[in-house]
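Journal club side-thread
Mid-discussion, someone asked how the predicted structure for our own chain would compare to the paper's figures. Pasting it here so we can look after the session.
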Amino acid sequence: MGASVDTRSDRLRREPPRTENTRPQGAVQSHMSWRDKFDAWSAHHSNSAIESLLRLLDTPLQSLMTWLVIAIAIALPAALFVVFNNVQQIGQSWQDSSQISVFLKKDATANQAQDLRGRWAKRPDVAQATYVSPDQALEEFKLGSGLGELANHLDENPLPAVILIKPKIGGNTPDALTSLQQSLVADPLVADVRLDMLWVKRLHQFITVAERFVVALAGLLALGVLLVIGNTIRMAIENRRDEIVVVKLVGATDAYVRRPFLYTGLWYGVGGGIVAAILLAIGFWWLSVPVTKLADLYQSSFRLQSLDFIESLQLILIAGLTGLLGAWIAVARHLYLIQPR
């Protein structure tokens, strides 16, 4: 009994006292919820956007010069785009020049001609079909030619009935007009179909060349904008090299370091787009008065059209995305070279 008591007492002295509430020893890692992570991510985005804008405003002259360079590069293709739209507007007023004259046979009655006109007017590639009777054609000939006295001595009216076909704008291309002409001449009541295709082909080729020229020029100037913004972002990265090294030393990720420079490129693009829209509005307002007077001299209702509000917003959006892309390329190229030693 004495030996067993001594053994139990020795074991109690060797074992530490037990407590009910035990805690793990060492550092404890805290886990953030997805909401906390999202709040931190959105807060850094907003802070980066505001701080990058304030950095640009702290150097107004340098920022304004960069915005002007970007605005000029953006305004040139945008101005050509607006001019191209105005040329298309003028071309729509020339739609009557592509009018197809369908001459009917002499034995075609007025009812047959009206039925034929009604069927053609329902075609999807025909905007309007007008029937001109032989008597109406003779009256127009008398008024337009000045030979009314001579026409009064004719034994019979030599002019046939005519149906004037006005194609739709969407089908006003050489291939579409040729297809329409062939379908019209296939009718048994038709004697002849006349269409001057030369000017249509010339206008179509001019529009094609103008479109490709505008696209090529826009691509070259967009490349220039990318280079300008990329070079500006590269200099900003070099100026903040020490700051980037310190931030990376404390564990900042590449996305965290990249974010302010991306917003800087975005602000450069948006600012250049706003300046470009203002320059275009002033330029076309300055030209609108003499263009209107010139159109009035030719008895035309043409008015010079500039960018509307939606197109101006699209221009600013495209400029902002271009600036963001240029900043992304510059950051991806130069930021990885800066590593803490």
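Post-session note: Residues 254-297 form the longest helix (44 residues).
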